[in-house]
Amino acid sequence: MHNDEHREDAASKDPAQAGQAAEHHEEALTPEPTQEEFDRLRIALATVREDQLRERAELENQRKRMARELEQARRFANERLLGALLPVFDSLEAGLSAQAQDVEKLREGMRLTLRQLGKVAEDNGLTVVDPLGEAFNPDQHQAMSAVPTSEHAPDSVVQVYQKGYLLNERLLRPALVVVAKAED
C-alpha cells in the first residue's frame, strides 16, 4: 500500500512523473517472455518471411508473364488484318496471270478485288472520305484549289483528286479536293 500511496502523491504533484511511475509499475508487473514464446515468435516471423518471399516471386512471375503476353500481342496485332488480306493477294495474283486479250474480264476481276480490299479495310475500322457534292470540311478535306462556278453552292466540293480516309473516326489522310467559290 505504501507504493500506491507514494504514486498518488507523485500524481498530485507532477502529472508527468505520475505517468512515468505508472509505466514503471506496469513494466514491473509484466512477466519476462519465456523461451517458448520466443520460439513461437521466431517461427511466426519465419512464416511471414516465407510468405513475403513467395508473394514477391508470384508478382515477379506475373510481371514476366504479362510482359511476354504484351510482346506477343504487339508481334501479332495485325494477324487478323493480314489473314483477311490473303484472299485479296490471291485475287491480284490470279488477275496478273490472266491473258491480255481478255481485258474486260481483267477489269471485272480488279473491281471484285477492290471490293474485297474495301471490305477488309472497313471491317478493320477504315472509312472512305469521298466528299463530292458535300460542304467543304477543313477537318477532313484539304482544298487544292477553288473554282468560280454558279452551278454549285459556294464552299462545296466540286471535284475530288484523292479520297481521304478515317481510321476508327480519326483522320488518317484528308481528301484532296477542289472547292466551289462564288463567281465574280
Automatic annotation (TrEMBL):
Q: What is its main location?
A: cytoplasm
Q: Which Pfam families match?
A: GrpE
Positions with biased composition (Basic and acidic residues): 1-12
Q: State where the protein is found.
A: Cytoplasm
Q: According to its record, what are the GO cellular component terms?
A: cytosol
Q: Which UniProt keywords apply?
A: Chaperone, Coiled coil, Cytoplasm, Stress response
Source taxon at top rank: Bacteria
Specify where the region named Disordered lies, as residue ranges: 1-39
MF GO annotations: adenyl-nucleotide exchange factor activity; protein homodimerization activity; protein-folding chaperone binding; unfolded protein binding
GO process annotations (BP): protein folding
SUPFAM superfamilies, per database record = Coiled-coil domain of nucleotide exchange factor GrpE, Head domain of nucleotide exchange factor GrpE
Which residues does UniProt call coiled coil?
49-79
Q: What is the stated purpose of this protein?
A: Participates actively in the response to hyperosmotic and heat shock by preventing the aggregation of stress-denatured proteins, in association with DnaK and GrpE. It is the nucleotide exchange factor for DnaK and may function as a thermosensor. Unfolded proteins bind initially to DnaJ; upon interaction with the DnaJ-bound protein, DnaK hydrolyzes its bound ATP, resulting in the formation of a stable complex. GrpE releases ADP from DnaK; ATP binding to DnaK triggers the release of the substrate protein, thus completing the reaction cycle.
Q: How does it assemble?
A: Homodimer.
Family under the similarity heading: Belongs to the GrpE family.
Which protein are we looking at?
A: Protein GrpE
Lineage summary? Bacteria, Pseudomonadati, Pseudomonadota, Gammaproteobacteria, Lysobacterales
Gene (name only): grpE
